[in-house]
Specification:
Length: 201
């Protein structure tokens, strides 16, 4: 049986496979750390599911590199410690941890799809990349739904706090109107009493 290790030329895409493996493995660690501290159960479940997928992607791409006859080159992530510290901190809200909507809507796989269409990859790596992209898109959908729930929850709390703040600032417009009517009524009553007193004299 022919082996991928028999290829004579070094594949041009080894760097891509290496980068994917490292990034996915790290993402699995970050998301699991976040899941361990969030108080929102549904968010935690989604984070753990995606984290498991990310770790799996890291392992599979590492294995593919080995199948091609090479080894994974580990590189330090300059922002790794900062990212982990933020996501694992229970004192930082979930709302502060979720990415912006513009980051969620970007397409990180356009370049890979272009390279696939140009025939750069071997058939097995093409299958692996297509599977990876499909899972990543599904994971992205799940995370977006979870993030939207976090935003809605945070928005509801802000509205409630605004109402309470407004109430503490003073009486509402309705209450002020009622008070004005009562004041006017008392004034009319006082005048009527004065007229009665004068008539009695």
């Amino acid at each position: 049986m022919a082996s991928d290790t028999q290829t004579t030329e070094k594949p041009s895409y080894l760097g891509l496979l290496n980068a994917i493996s490292l990034a996915e493995s790290a993402a699995g660690v970050y998301l699991e750390a976040w899941a361990d501290v969030t108080p929102i159960e549904d968010l935690a479940c989604t984070l753990r599911l995606v984290a498991a997928r990310e770790r799996s992607h890291g392992d599979v791409f590492c294995r593919r590199i080995a199948e091609l006859g090479y080894e994974l080159k580990k590189k330090p992530d300059p922002r790794g410690a900062e990212q982990l510290a933020k996501l694992s901190n229970p004192n930082i809200s979930d709302l502060e941890k979720i990415p912006s909507r513009s980051e969620e809507e970007s397409d990180p796989f356009a370049e890979i799809r272009r390279r696939i269409s140009e025939g750069e990859f071997d058939p097995m790596t093409v299958n692996l990349l297509n599977w990876y992209i499909a899972e990543e898109k599904d994971s992205g959908r799940r995370l977006r739904e979870a993030y939207d729930c976090v935003r809605e929850t945070a928005g509801g709390r802000k509205k409630g706090a605004a109402k309470m703040s407004s109430a503490s600032d003073g009486p509402s417009a309705d209450a002020e109107a009622m008070m004005a009517c009562m004041t006017a009524g008392f004034t009319r009553l006082e005048k009527a009493m004065e007229k009665l007193a004068k008539a009695a004299k």
